[in-house]
Amino acid sequence: AQKVTQAQTEISVVEKEDVTLDCVYETRDTTYYLFWYKQPPSGELVFLIRRNSFDEQNEISGRYSWNFQKSTSSFNFTITASQVVDSAVYFCALSVEWGYQKVTFGTGTKLQVIP
Amino acid sequence: DARVTQTPRHKVTEMGQEVTMRCQPILGHNTVFWYRQTMMQGLELLAYFRNRAPLDDSGMPKDRFSAEMPDATLATLKIQPSEPRDSAVYFCASGPPGQYNSPLHFGNGTRLTVT
């Protein structure tokens, strides 16, 4: 069975601060996929990024960056110079190769960026 | 821009009534998922289909919930009879065929309130 843990329930930062959202996962499968989704106050779930288990290269996209470390089973998400529009709930998620795209979600981290 | 469409967006009903939620997956997608989001449980997988066949509905209370795909363009989730504890946001998501690492595309959800 798969498990995703997001220990941070809520985080508040002041605008322009950097913030890191933690994600720890568990799986016995050797091929798996990690995701981050954003859920803004409007409620929809927006896909942000996917990483494959065989690709530990970190990724940067604008103010967003992701640090994938298999040694610690972590897939952390950093927002640099946070903005009010970043306020949302962020979900880390996991699926495995033969899981028919079945995604297991963490409980989410609510990020509030204060102007 | 292709989207998953869910109807209705909001539903308020009285305890004991039947509720039907509908989902139109993205054209060409062959996996469909139903998730339920509550404050207490987060995002829970209720059921999912591949090529219209149910693969797993173990997350669904069998006595009152049922999920079907009458055709490739329609998935339904029914609750009969509804109870106040069913109040939640129900999300439908779809995924493309043969791509196990593809992110799911989510609809905007149906917010159900059972009084």
Low-confidence blocks of residues of chain A: none
Backbone shape of chain B: globular
Distance between the termini of chain B: 36 Å
Total beta-strand segments of chain A: 12
Order of helices and strands of chain A: EEEEEEEEEEEE
Name the beta content range of chain A.
over 45%
The largest sheet of chain A, given as strand count, sense and whether it forms a barrel, is:
6 strands, mixed
Helical residue percent band of chain B = under 10%
How many strands appear in the DSSP assignment of chain B? 11
How much strand of chain B?
A: over 45%
Distance from first to last alpha carbon of chain A: 41 Å
Structural class of chain A: mainly beta
Short description:
The complex is a heterodimer of chains A (115) and B (115). Chain A is an all-beta fold and 115 residues long.
Helix-strand layout with pairing:
The complex is a heterodimer of chains A (115) and B (115).
Chain A: E1 3-5, E2 10-14, E3 19-21, E4 24-26, E5 32-39, E6 46-52, E7 59-61, E8 64-69, E9 74-79, E10 88-96, E11 104-105, E12 109-114
Parallel strand pairs in A: 2-12
Antiparallel strand pairs in A: 1-4, 3-9, 5-6, 5-10, 7-8, 8-9, 10-11, 10-12
Chain B: E1 5-7, E2 10-13, E3 19-24, E4 31-38, E5 42-50, E6 53-56, E7 65-71, E8 74-79, E9 88-95, E10 105-106, E11 110-114
